[in-house]
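Fold it.
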Amino acid sequence: MAILPMNTPNQPSNNQYQLPERVKIVEVGPRDGLQSEVAISLNDKISLVNMLSHTGLSMIESGSFVSPKWIPQMANSGELFRRIKRTKGVTYSALTPNLIGLNAAIAANVDEIAIFGSASESFSRKNINCSITDSLRQFSPVVKQALAAGLPVRGYISCTLGCPYEGYISINKVAKVAQQLQQMGCYQISLGDTVGVGTPEATKAMINAVSQYVSVDKLAVHFHDTYGQALANIYAALQLGVSVIDSAVAGLGGCPYAQGASGNVASEDVVYMLNGLGIESGVDLSELIAVGNFISERLKRSNGSKVAQAYPAAQALFQSLI
C-alpha cells in the first residue's frame, strides 16, 4: 500500500535530461472526456466545471461547438458557458471546428478556442469528413477570425503515434501538420495519442521530429491510456522539456471514432506523478479526487484514476504513521 509521495527536489534523472520546474495541466474532462461518455444533465456538467475551477487548474476545456448530429453530448455547450461561475485566473476554452462553431463560441464568451486536425488521412475523413489538406484549409478562416476577435487558438493533432485505421503514422507527417498549424496562428500544438498505442521511445522520437519545426515550449501532449503507457509517455515528454499536459479528471473519455480507445490519462494520476517528481502544477490533489468521484458517481461508473482508487486507504495509512 503506497503512501502519497512527498515533494522531492527537481533533479534530472541523468546528465541528459532536466525536468521542468512547473507544468501546466489542461483539463479536458468536460469536453474530450464527456463527449465519449453517456449523456449527463447540463446541471451536472456545470457543476463539474465549477468544481474543477477551484482545484488550482488554470485551464479547463469546457465544451465544443460542433454539430449535435455528430457529438450530441456537447449540444448544450453554449448554455454551459453562459451559466458557469467563472473563477479569476482560469481559462475556459472550447473546440470550434468551423466558423459557425466559432461564432457560437464568441457569443457564449469563450476565452480560447481549439481546432482539431489529424496526422492520419483515414482518421481525418472519419472524424471531420475531409482530407488533412482540406481540413487545414477550412481551419484557416476560423483561426484568422478568432485571432481578430482576440481569442487565442490552440491546435490539436490526433493520431500522432498511431491510427486505428492505418496503424503506424510517419512522425515527419506529424511534424509537417504541426508546422502548418503554427504558421496558421496556433500558439500551441497539442500532440495526441488518440488510441493510446504509443510507448516512451516512440514518444521521444515523435516530439524530436516535431521540435524541428515547432519549438518544444509551444508543444503539449495528450495521451490516452489504452495500453497503460500514458504516464510513461508523459515522463518521456517531460524529459524533453514539454511542460503542458492534457488530462481528464477520473480518466474520462475515449474516442467516438477510434473503437477500443480508452479514456484520457487521469488528471489525478498526472498530479500524483508530478508531486513525486517535485514538479509544481498548482493543483490540489485531494480536491481533484473529490471532483473525479463526483463525476464518476453521476456517470454511474467507477473512477478511472488509480490514485483516486487508492487514495482513501493510502491517506488512512499515512495518518497512522504520523
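Confidence is low (pLDDT under 50) at residues 1-15.
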